[in-house]
Amino acid sequence: MSDIDFSQLPHTPMYICQEALLEKNLLLMQRVQRESGAKIILALKGFALWSTFDLVGKYLHGCTASGLHEAKLAREKMDKEVHTYSPAFKEEEIDEIARISDDIVFNSPAQFHRFYDRVKSINPNISVSLRVNPEYSSSPVDLYNPCGLYSRLGTTLANFDPSIVSKLDGLNFHALCEQNVDALEGVLEAFEAKFGPYIDTMKYINFGGGHHITRDDYDVQRLIAVIKEFKERHNNITVYLEPGEAVGWQTGPLVTSVLDIVHNGMDIAILDSSAEAHMPDTLAMPYRAMVRHAGEAGEKKYTYRLGGNTCLAGDIMGDYSFDEPLEIGDKIIFEDQIHYTFVKNTTFNGIKLPSLAIWTKEGDLNIVHEFGYEAYRDRLS
Description:
This protein is 28% helix and 21% strand. By secondary structure, it is α/β, with parallel strands linked by helices.
């Protein structure tokens, strides 16, 4: 696999997805599908670089969407299975969602009762499922815990309506966040304990996302075994997984440039990017992004605070050290920024959005989208 030739970049900031690394992830997921019998669909909330969807669609069965706009993107740009879920569907959007979706996932029995007849009249072939809350999760961060206290996501057993079971094609749960297969096993135990009587009446069960399948230490062989064992317990029922982050995991960086270096108790490098606008998960999760050839503060000879080019005081990427002093124009490469990054971007302060590019398997830079003033203006009025 050829690494990126950063001399080809005409400007920064820029997200660059490495096609070979993306395909490596997809090949691993293809193996999971082949050996377990499960179907994997892409969660657009975590990876929505639709310029790669021809490639993604070669390996995965389709997309899972979180509402009308993601569903439209899935239908327009991949046109395979489209599964659409929302915590609550809107009256003015439900008809179009029904027309373009292969599966609709209701969050509550109330939403089911409100819209079931309508969506089936519009699309008689649509599958209908209900998201349930197994009330168990070992999610490491409350912000990303769908089964936390007072969660609005999914129906608990106490609020389940058995009268709708005969009209359901599937049950969905989502309880993981960047976790290994042992976390899935805990969730499955709780799910089967609570909703076991209904599983065998379904056509499929969706295990949700959060499976960190492409992480180096993920136990892929155990995942395959867990899926097969579940299917054997339940009459070879169809199983879906819907990872997003795992598809884009370690597939490419955000490349930025040093605009200025100031000193206020320490050296501070101001970049042409922004943690707040361009790397929001580093602040929300939070986590420390890896910078190529950099170490922890004080680990190497020259330490800098890397800061964004907005007026937010806390727009800081963190403190990093380098072997050589930074200079204006140097490129700073933030690793692994292709998932849960540009899908959350904002134009806060009018800062320019990073371009989107693909580093092809042939070793060429293909810039697929550049953003200008219009991207900022057209979000406003």
